[in-house]
Amino acid sequence: MFLRKTLPTLIAGVCGVVVVVAYFFAIPSVQTLANHILKWQSVIAVFALGLGGVNIIRLHTKNLQRDPKNFYSLALLVTFVITIVVGLTMGQTSAAYTFIFDYINVPTGSAIFSLLAFYIGTAAYRAFRAKNAEAAILLITGCIVMMGRVPIGAKILPFTAPATDWIMSVLNVGGQRGVMIAGAIGFIAVSLRIIVGLERRAYGGE
Amino acid sequence: MGIFTQGRVFDLVTLVVVTGLMGLYMYLARSGMRVKIRPIAGFAAIDEAIGRAAEMGKPVHFTPGFGGLVAATFAGLEVLGYVARLTAQYDVRLIVTVSQAETFAVTEQVMRQAYLEAGKPEAFKPEDCRFISTDQWAYASGVIGVLNREKVASNIMIGQFAAEALILAEAGNTVGAIQIAGTTNAYQIPFFVVACDYVILGEEMFAAGAHFTNNVVHLGSLRAEDLVKAACIAIMAIGAVLTTAGADFLTTIMGK
Lengths: 206, 256
Fold this sequence. Notes:
The complex is a heterodimer of chains A (206) and B (256).
Chain A: H1 2-24, H2 28-66, H3 71-90, H4 95-127, H5 133-149, H6 151-156, H7 160-195
Helix pairs in contact in A: 1-2, 2-3, 5-7
Chain B: H1 9-30, H2 41-56, E1 60-65, H3 71-89, E2 94-98, H4 101-117, E3 129-131, H5 136-150, E4 154-160, H6 165-174, E5 178-183, H7 189-195, E6 198-201, H8 208-213, H9 216-244, H10 249-254
Helix pairs in contact in B: 1-9, 2-3, 3-4, 5-6
């Protein structure tokens, strides 16, 4: 009980209070301690990354045991091992490691990111069906904003440019700020509960 | 300003007042004060989503998003605790994907605890809590893969999401899953709204503990949050009137 609940709560509470005090008060010793705590956080995250790596290896090894033709798991394990071996033996600035990063990692990431353009299209198509009054308002507003955001649209329908500016700077910003302010208040509540040890999920749910 | 950091005095006073209010209402709720919360459609739909998965004999997918151990992730983990308990009770397979290593350890423990609370600790399979990648797009592609290969019946995404939100939601839509999503990221909420069946909007996520467990601490803190929101609205209204009238003392005080 002490190791699983009391000690983590104490550590989280002390670290939380120190970081908050360092933010609001110009006390050099507390600010130094807070900087150390933030560095410890990075160190702990690295240990957690090790746990994540073990999980990946365990999961995909099991997948391969179940189905030796599982190409995806095999590809993941092989590239996982190659990247680690290259990184550890040749260093992260080596040509081989840079090749893996620049010509495999970055392009695959960009390919996934580019899916967003197509998904915005399909999502907009579904959202822009005037099934009810709210959807109709969304459709009209969306059309005005789309016309107002492109030069030719503003040329065809001149009113769309100022209307777009008003929609984006008044309606849109108003709604977003409402979400942000309410979210920030919720953040404070959760953080406070964690610091005083009342957020049981933060400690694994016990 | 001496001991205080320049420009943060008003923030400190606000934090002290908000903390005091929350402490007071948590105490009052523990002392028996009744706090009622309105039903939240997204939370109510979770039972339906798990029931659908049970009927179809397909898994449920849950992800707390791309964030580390931040408040939105903890709200997501609160929902995960409920989802895991329910899936354990109905013998539905639950697959959880995680993007941050530090979140992974906590997530696995939350799942393990929920299965224990449901009286089925043996049903928990560690390989169903999957760490994907800390890289945003690798995480997105990993989740797309899970949704497609496992043919999930329900997709629940509650936590911190960024640009990958729409990619995940559209992938879930493609496999025909019932989708429940929630985030505090105002820029991603519209994407969830158009692609998901139910959306938990921003701060509604923080009501998860109060909604699922009737936890008095959460209920008290919710009441305090509502009061703080009312105070914020009042300050904004007064500020708008004062600024329009040419008086800037409120903005001067807030800048201290």
